[in-house]
């Protein structure tokens, strides 16, 4: 089989694989056309690399379970899928189970279109009910965020980089993947203001003006790093050990997460925060200071205001105040 399939390993490095090396045995036994359509589903239908990786894991795990029962691809029935989903729900969260079922269902749909099988055994299977009115992402209040940024020594190159990274997530509500994908040219002047261009999911570009404090953080970082002339290069780069020097390699989401955890520990922040914390923190602070949900949705580049509402944690403080009314 020709062609290649792009996946991501545990270190978030892009890996290009020969499809034949990752096709489950049950698909191979179904014939060359089944192999072709299986590889084609991941290579052609799913553009986001992270989604591709998650769906590949999901269907591979399902087919391994089916293979243990000595079933052929054309012998899989709704009862088998329903049983698997029920078992999966014992160890995994509802969102994870729903994602696995979606991957299985979409693959079978594609195999039907490719005339590999006649029916989709996952079509009638229902996933677990799940509804979230508030996100689970830990957030920081205004004082804690200032404490975190203030604890970073911005006179060093790595310190200036780390403050700029955290500041960008706070002031733009940027996803860490969009931040990691930025090049130097994605921080640019337009009129009298500086703007940032975020590379969002699905290849979408999201452009918005910089907060004046973010401008300061980025300017300090770029001045110390002396990256101004390398417009096509990565904006945020990894450091070489403890030398304090940057490489030409782009920071990955995992690199940013490790940095955030390290900086939080150094600043005495006890909340177990992650990269997504700053998206929720920024949105909550914006709404606390008179911002509207509609504009927050626009700034966060959410498709639905319902998604933005999950990041609104203003009621957390209200709930705590009410609990403290108990004087027993």
Automatic annotation (TrEMBL):
Core-binding (CB) domain mapped to chain residues: 33-112
Keyword terms, alphabetized: DNA integration, DNA recombination, DNA-binding
One GO BP annotation of this record: DNA integration
Gene3D superfamilies: 1.10.150.130, Intergrase catalytic core
TM ranges: none
Domain Tyr recombinase: 135-325
Pfam families registered for this protein in UniProt: Phage_int_SAM_1, Phage_integrase
Record has Phosphoprotein as a keyword: no
InterPro entries: CB, DNA_brk_join_enz, Integrase-like_cat_sf, Integrase_catalytic, Integrase_recombinase_N, Integrase_SAM-like_N, Tyrosine_recombinase_XerCD
SUPFAM superfamilies: DNA breaking-rejoining enzymes
Molecular function as annotated in GO: DNA binding
Record-stated family: Belongs to the 'phage' integrase family.
PANTHER family per the UniProt record, alphabetical: INTEGRASE_RECOMBINASE PROTEIN MJ0367-RELATED, PHAGE INTEGRASE-RELATED
Protein known as: Site-specific recombinase XerC
Provenance organism: Fimbriiglobus ruber
């Amino acid at each position: 089989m020709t062609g290649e399939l792009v996946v991501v390993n545990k270190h978030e490095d892009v890996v290009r694989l020969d499809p034949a090396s990752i096709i489950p045995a049950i698909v191979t036994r179904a014939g060359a056309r089944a192999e072709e359509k299986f590889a084609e589903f991941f290579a052609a239908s799913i553009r986001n690399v992270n989604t591709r990786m998650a769906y590949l894991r999901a269907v591979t795990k399902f087919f391994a379970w089916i293979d243990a029962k000595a079933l052929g691809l054309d012998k899989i029935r709704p009862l088998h899928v329903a049983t698997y989903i029920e078992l999966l729900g014992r160890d995994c969260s509802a969102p994870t189970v729903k994602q696995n079922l979606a991957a299985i269902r979409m693959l079978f749909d594609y195999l039907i279109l490719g005339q590999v099988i006649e029916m989709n055994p996952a079509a009638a299977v229902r996933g677990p009910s799940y509804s979230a009115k508030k996100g689970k992402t830990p957030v920081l209040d205004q004082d804690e965020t200032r404490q975190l940024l203030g604890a970073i020594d911005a006179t060093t190159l790595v310190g200036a980089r780390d403050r700029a990274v955290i500041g960008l997530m706070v002031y733009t509500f940027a996803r860490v993947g969009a931040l990691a994908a930025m090049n130097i040219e994605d921080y640019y002047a337009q009129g009298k203001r500086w703007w940032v261009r975020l590379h969002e999911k699905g290849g979408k570009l999201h452009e918005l003006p910089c907060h004046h404090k973010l401008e300061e953080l980025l300017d300090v970082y770029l001045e110390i790093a002396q990256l101004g002339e390398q417009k096509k290069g990565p904006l945020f780069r990894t450091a070489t050990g403890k030398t304090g020097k940057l490489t030409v390699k782009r920071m990955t989401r995992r690199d940013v997460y490790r940095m955030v955890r390290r900086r939080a520990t150094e600043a005495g922040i006890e909340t177990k925060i992650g990269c997504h914390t700053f998206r929720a923190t920024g949105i909550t602070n914006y709404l606390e200071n008179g911002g509207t949900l509609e504009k927050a949705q626009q700034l966060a580049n959410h498709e639905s205001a319902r998604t933005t509402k999950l990041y609104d944690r203003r009621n957390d403080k209200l709930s705590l105040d009410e609990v403290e009314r108990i004087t027993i």
